[in-house]
Specification:
The complex is a heterodimer. Chain A is mainly α. Chain A is 78% helix and 0% strand. Chain A is built from 14 helices and no strands. Chain B is of the alpha/beta class. Chain B folds into 2 domains: 146 residues, P-loop containing nucleotide triphosphate hydrolases (Rossmann fold), CATH 3.40.50; 66 residues, no CATH class. Helix content of chain B is 36%, strand content 26%. In chain B, α5 packs parallel to α7, α6 runs antiparallel to α7 and α7 runs parallel beside α8. The longest helix of chain B is centred in the last third of the chain and has 18 residues. Chain B is globular and about 60 Å long. The chains are: A mainly alpha, B alpha/beta. At the A-B interface, α1, α2, α9 and α10 of A face α1, α4, β6, α5 and α6 of B.
Chain lengths: 351, 293
């Protein structure tokens, strides 16, 4: 105690350590941006027809109608942009979900949001006869919103309000309900079956660029709300009682979080299908480097999510040439081992 | 020497709270927190019954009582964590449950029983989170925050541990770090729910010494729930003994802690002896066998 009171040298030392760590975290962020740029470039260049960086550059800025230009502009740019936007959205949403549920395996699939979107996609085809991609994507978004609202409401019904456990249980129940409904409709309708089978894999190819452009405003609002939510999440991670005594309004904080999660995952899942594991994997890698500060976790998880989806999509084009493996399948292949790692860790992850 | 200098530093660190001083209870000057015919319930189980209690400014109050007597529940309601079934809790004369969370958080800090931190959180980061009520979305971190955190670390003796993670600390160190977090909030009132829970005797004394020091150096009003009766008598100015959701006795430790009270409230046969050296009553529990014989 007495040594601790003679502070000035220790104070300097501490400031030094603190600023070193901040510098390290900013450095990590720069490295992640570089990684993201690399995966972007690879996603534009690689595929059934590999292109050189020069060809990519030419196709992007001075297209003259050559084969390479057409590949870049028609095929690679739309899926690359979509993979980037969806990846960032899913990464940030994953971190938000883990923070709010304090559950290290929270994920749009686990929380039933993907199932909600899937059910509404099928429902729109089966009941309303929607055939256009644009049409059922809006229904997918609606389904995701309904599912997350349901999870939140059911989770809140418990005495004492929404807790990590009630949210996880409500998510599991919602997932089961919507999956069963979707399965029922798919069995009765061939057209719904075909679309659902395609949608449920989770992919970023074959979606026009305009669709991604329409997503962007929703994603931006979601990201903004996520940033606003970060200090509240930090306080919440000390337990609800401590958070409340620190002046956090639990209802508002949870509501802002749920709206952000719905916007981010709802949009991404509606367009791409249920891409699982991104939020899970990105958040765990992010937390490994940043420690338990959600301001950094959210930023890292977003960039990692983008890089991860881009890399998985690019890899999917290369492993089964001339065909390809959808990004959803690739990510499941990557995500499986992460689950095993989490199980095999000596100490259980505590959020 | 630097020690004295730093000690002044701690003294200066008395919670600012200028606004709060003006807003004192007009009906009861000198009372910060007050329960008025307060009943508290979990579902349909009422645990506190129409209780009246006044917490005087600048005192250390210890609430004692057997398990399940409602003492932690009472503390939680003082910290606005529980809505009253009936009656009210007044903070400087205002009903605490109608005040915004943040307004309460500027005046009252509460450390719950056995709090849990996320894995890998450093002491410095934990303590920094105590500054949450002083931050807004446009003003995140200031030199005030920096100084408050440094003061809290120093006055709890956790400065040297600042960069360690909580998982690496001993129980006593960890508890001091949590207290530092509550201190960084710089509230004039501090509520501690069994701060010595799960600590060995040496660490219990360490934590209570710290509470006493804080009270002496900054004049904070402290309310704590304690299990150990002798320690409660020694460290508190005012004892409140509860049984089945009601107060059975309150006042200075010497008056409250009697053999009759222990028999009545705790169903415990014990010897109570005033110790000159310590200046407080000591409780020596008698075993059932001795009591029967």
């Amino acid at each position: 105690m007495i040594e601790a009171l003679s502070a000035p040298p220790a104070k300097r030392a501490k400031r030094q350590i603190a600023s070193n760590r901040t510098r390290r975290l900013w450095g990590g962020l720069a490295a992640l941006l570089a990684l993201l740029a690399l995966t972007l470039l690879l996603s534009l260049a690689l595929g059934a027809n590999p292109l050189t960086p020069t060809q990519v550059w030419h196709g992007l800025w001075t297209p003259t109608g050559e084969d390479g230009d057409i590949i870049v502009r028609r095929l690679r740019v739309p899926r690359t942009v979509l993979a980037l936007v969806a990846g960032v959205a899913l990464g940030v949403a994953g971190a938000l979900m883990q923070g709010h549920t304090r559950n290290p395996i929270a994920d749009p699939v686990v929380l039933g949001i993907s199932a909600g979107a899937g059910m509404c996609v099928v429902g729109s085809i089966f009941v309303l006869g929607v055939t256009s991609l644009y049409g059922y994507i809006w229904f997918g978004f609606l389904g995701a919103a309904v599912a997350s609202a349901l999870v939140y409401l059911v989770g809140t019904l418990a005495r004492g309000g929404a807790t990590p456990v009630t949210l996880a249980l409500a998510g599991a129940a919602t997932h089961a309900l919507f999956t069963a409904l979707a399965a029922g409709m798919v069995i009765m309708d061939r057209a719904a079956m075909d679309t659902y089978r395609f949608w449920t894999v989770g992919a970023v190819n074959g979606r026009p660029l305009e669709l991604t452009t329409q997503m962007v405003p929703f994603i931006l609002v979601g990201l903004l709300l996520a940033a606003v939510n970060a200090p509240g999440l930090n306080a919440l991670s000390l337990g609800e009682d401590v958070a409340r005594t620190l002046g956090v309004n639990l209802g508002t904080t949870r509501a802002v979080g749920m709206v952000a999660i719905t916007l981010l995952t709802g949009t991404a899942v509606a367009v791409c299908g249920p891409i699982g594991f991104v939020g899970l994997v990105a958040t765990h890698i992010a937390r490994h480097f940043t420690g338990p500060d959600y301001r950094w976790i959210l930023a890292y998880a977003g960039l990692l999510g983008g890089a991860l989806v881009l890399a998985a999509d690019t890899l999917g084009r290369l492993v089964a040439r001339p065909g390809e493996l959808e990004v959803g399948i690739m990510l499941a292949l990557i995500g499986g081992p992460v689950f095993i790692y989490l199980v095999r860790r000596r100490k259980p992850v505590r959020l | 020497m630097t020690h004295t200098l730093d000690h002044d530093d701690v003294r200066d660190g008395a919670p600012a709270g200028a606004g709060a001083r003006e807003a004192r209870d007009p009906e009861r000057p000198g009372v910060r927190l007050r329960a008025e015919r307060l009943s508290l319930a979990y579902g349909d189980r009422t645990v506190v019954h129409e209780l009246d209690l006044e917490i005087q400014d600048g005192t250390v109050t210890a609430v004692i009582g057997p398990n399940g007597c409602g003492k932690s529940t009472l503390l939680r309601s003082f910290g606005r964590l529980m809505k009253p079934l009936s009656g009210r809790v007044l903070l400087d004369g205002e009903p605490v449950h109608t005040l915004p969370t943040r307004r309460v958080a500027e005046r009252v800090g509460l450390l719950p029983q056995s709090p849990v931190a996320p894995e890998g959180l450093s002491v410095a980061d934990l303590v920094a989170r105590g500054r949450h009520p002083h931050q807004t979305w446009y003003r995140r971190w200031s030199s005030d925050d920096e100084e408050a955190v440094a003061r809290a670390l120093r006055s709890t003796g956790t400065y040297e541990l600042a960069e360690r993670t909580l998982d690496e600390l001993s129980g006593g160190q960890r508890q001091r770090a949590w207290i530092a977090m509550a201190l960084a909030q710089e509230t004039e009132i501090l509520l501690l729910d069994e701060p010595t829970n799960h600590l060995d005797l040496a660490h219990q004394v360490e934590v209570l010494d710290l509470v006493r020091e804080l009270h002496r150096d900054t004049g904070r009003t402290v309310v704590l729930v304690l299990h150990d009766l002798s320690l409660a008598a020694r460290y508190a100015d005012h004892l409140v003994a509860m049984k089945e959701g009601r107060i059975v006795a309150q006042g200075p430790p010497v008056e409250v802690l009697t053999e009759e009270l222990l028999a009545e409230a705790f169903g415990l046969r014990a010897l109570v002896r005033y110790d000159e050296e310590i200046g407080a009553p000591l409780v020596v529990p008698l075993s059932r066998e001795r009591a029967l014989a």
